[in-house]
Amino acid sequence: MKLRRIKDVKGLSPAAEKRKKRRRKVLKLVRNLLVTALFAVTVIYAAHSPFFNIKEITANASKHYDGNILSEASGISLGQNGFRLLSGGAGRFYLLHIGSAEKQILGKCPYVKSANVRYILPSKVIISVEERTPAVILRTKTESMLADKEGYLLESGADPKKLKLPVIKVPEPKTLNLGKKIDIPGENLISAYELFNTIKEMDSKNEDKLMPKVDYVDVSDMNNVRFSLQGRITVNLGKLEDLNYKINTAVTIYTRNLKKTDRGVLDFSIDADPVFTPENGG
User: Fold this and answer.
1) What stretches of the chain adopt beta strand conformation (E)?
2) Which CATH number does 50-131 carry?
3) What percentage of the chain exceeds 70 in pLDDT?
């Protein structure tokens, strides 16, 4: 058997390779345009077809809002076209999330942290929400407000005695809007939480517990952070420095050196050693 020599196969010339790449790009562009056009035609058809009109709205109740309230807050009505709702506001169209309805729920329901409104083809809407957890009562000179840990306003006119939550006195905010973050410096809340946590930490090491006696923490003046004990002793810590020392000392003085009838200010802001000034000046 004779062997045949195979000649070297030469590749395409640079010019031919360039033309080939150009054809691929053109074909890819045409394919993308056709897919986009087909999608647009499908959406336009669906937006005008009664087959995709909403026939059922299911809203999962949360702690503070029943299904009817959430459904009404969404602004969605039976008979509306699902695809028109999808294109009616900022949302995740590809996930069939109705962004305009989610935004309306957040605006009307202060306790709602996040809303999920999904369009289920062809004619159903499902609503679910995640709520914020009440964590603190914020007090100003004129207002008492229920807020979550991040400072979002849940209710105004909160009653500390009924709710049994930590109370923090804060500066007067410029604006107050339910469901929005209260307009106060973030460092005020952080400092209040730091003080509460330090008191709890000291309580875990001491037999005499301070936390059950704390009425409120006052961070309206960061140079004179205060807290009240049983409505009769105000502890002025000054700046939030040497907290462990100040809290331990306050516990010792309050439980061993002061009488149960004493009223006044225990001041750490004047000197290294605390000074107690009786309310009656005695």
Assistant:
1) 56-59, 112-120, 124-131, 134-139, 144-148, 153-156, 167-169, 214-218, 225-229, 233-238, 264-267, 275-278
2) 3.10.20.310
3) 85
